[in-house]
Design brief:
Its main location: membrane. One of its GO terms (biological process) is response to antibiotic. By secondary structure, the protein is mainly α. About 85% of the residues lie in helices and about 0% in strands. The chain has 19 helices and no strands.
Length: about 475
């Protein structure tokens, strides 16, 4: 048995706890490291450029999330399809998919980034920016937006690398970029005095280095999955592109919704604030809280991403029980991680928040400390939702995955934001978050409890037929 055959054999036969640990550890490290890009930037900006610069960076988040969404559309969809094709030992189709993923990434980036640069001013005003923080936001965006294609290529092919059996190498690529970002941030912000512009250049240079590392992997013909040498494989295959998008649509929509929710939150802060200063503090506080929450959320996303190739491969191999058991273990781990985040927000909030501001006892720290405890009140249940979204996506059930992604951000959070702030003011905005988390978590549990018995019955009575559907790109009911 060759080394590559051994990798695929382990996906189908190795003990699940050990297998999940093997795949989740590097993806967790990679995902947490990815979150550190944001956190490190905010910490150094807060310490080096002040609270207004921090608010300026926070107001750019809807645009950044919007751009990330297209990277997830291609990367997540391609990773799932690659897992299934490798599960059926269809190497040629997997290579053609790899080529088409590049074409999609280029198409989306040229179109979307051009529009963002063209309409940047009206977009920032729409998001709730004012004359105090807009200069900081534009200074940051004019650097990172043109370079977004590098970020998307890095994300997309990192996910594909992990799905093709190289989780540790995917982890190294993320570590490489994050460590470099941590080194360059203080040099550019403090050493060169570039302020928020320095954070932007540190991020771009770090992503370029990581992207070169990732892409070089797929140019190596010795690897399981690599770029084809035949130019015919680079002709756009719209059927294959649609197959990628159909799976990637769930995380794409989730990220777009995150962007829209961020806009609504910022606009709500501006509307309910009693002054421009309070609005800017609220926006900066929201950015800090998101950074803290994202550290734990990205850990949970990493576990779920580590779960994905195991679930996807065993689905393709017709071993649905292994897929279900993997989900259960991943969900338990994610709830435990979220509980740690909840405990930190409850018992040591000020210690965490002070890292983001050079005014250790200023208004921003006081306000953010109070809001953090409210926002993360029911944080543990998020672990169930994050795992369930990825589980349905890995099963090829993009519709259910997308619906579950929307429950917290649209079905529950938006109504809460329309109701509670009307009689609670800005505090009502923070209260809306844990209420929406709880309702979305309950919905996730109910959907999974409904789905698992149906999958088991289907595979018990029609194992061959169910497996054949999976290999054709269909989902078992």
């Amino acid at each position: 048995m060759s080394r590559e055959e051994e990798r695929l054999h382990k996906l189908e036969n190795a003990p699940i706890p050990r297998l999940l640990f093997t795949y989740a550890l590097p993806s967790v490290i990679g995902a947490v490291v990815n979150a550190l890009y944001n956190i490190v930037d905010r910490i150094f900006i807060g310490q080096g450029a002040g609270d207004d610069a921090l608010a300026g960076m926070a107001i750019t988040l809807p645009i950044l999330l919007f751009l990330v969404a297209f990277g997830m559309l291609v990367g997540s969809g391609a990773a799932v399809r690659v897992s299934i094709y490798l599960g059926r030992n269809d190497q040629k189709t997997a290579e053609r998919l790899l080529s088409n993923a590049i074409m999609l990434t280029l198409l989306f980036n040229v179109t979307i980034c051009s529009m963002v640069l063209l309409f940047m001013d009206p977009l920032l005003h729409l998001f709730g920016a004012n004359d105090i923080i807009i200069p900081y936001a534009k200074e940051y965006l004019y650097i990172v937006v043109p370079a977004n294609i590098i970020s998307d290529l890095c994300f997309s092919y990192n996910a594909i690398m992990r799905a093709s059996g190289y989780p540790h190498k995917a982890m190294i690529s993320m570590l490489l970029g994050a460590v470099l970002n941590c080194i360059l941030d203080p040099i550019f912000i403090f050493g060169f005095g570039w302020g928020i512009k320095g954070a932007a250049w540190a991020t771009v240079i770090s992503e370029i280095v990581a992207a070169v590392f990732v892409m070089s992997h797929f140019f190596n013909q010795r690897h399981t999955l690599h770029f084809s040498r035949s130019w015919s494989d680079y002709r756009p295959d719209f059927k294959m592109m649609l197959a990628i998008v159909s799976i990637g649509i769930a995380p794409f929509v989730m990220m777009i919704v995150n962007s829209l929710i961020n806009i609504i939150m910022n606009r709500s802060f501006v509307y309910y604030a009693t002054s421009t200063s309070e609005a800017n503090i609220s926006i900066a506080a929201y950015g800090i809280i998101l950074s803290i929450a994202q550290l734990f959320i990205q850990f949970m996303v990493g576990v779920s991403m580590g779960m994905q190739p195991i679930v996807g491969f065993n689905l393709g191999a017709g071993k649905i029980r292994r897929s279900i058991d993997t989900y259960k273990l991943a969900a338990l781990l994610n709830v435990s991680v979220a509980a740690i985040g909840f405990a930190m927000a409850l018992f040591t909030p000020s210690l965490i928040v002070q890292a983001f501001s050079r005014e250790g006892d200023g208004a921003l720290v006081t306000f953010t400390t109070q809001a953090l405890g409210i926002a993360m009140m029911t944080f543990p249940i998020i672990g169930v939702q994050i795992t369930s979204v990825q589980f349905f996506q890995s099963l090829g059930k993009s519709g259910k995955s997308m619906f579950l992604s929307l429950t917290r951000q649209v079905v529950y959070l938006i109504p809460c934001l329309l109701i509670f702030p009307t009689f609670m003011g800005i505090k009502g905005i923070w209260v809306s978050m844990p209420i929406a988390d709880t309702l979305a978590g309950i919905t996730s549990i109910l959907m999974v409890l409904y789905q698992i018995p149906r999958l088991l019955r289907r595979y018990a009575h029609e194992p061959d037929g169910a497996k054949e559907k999976v290999l054709k790109g269909e989902s078992p009911q």
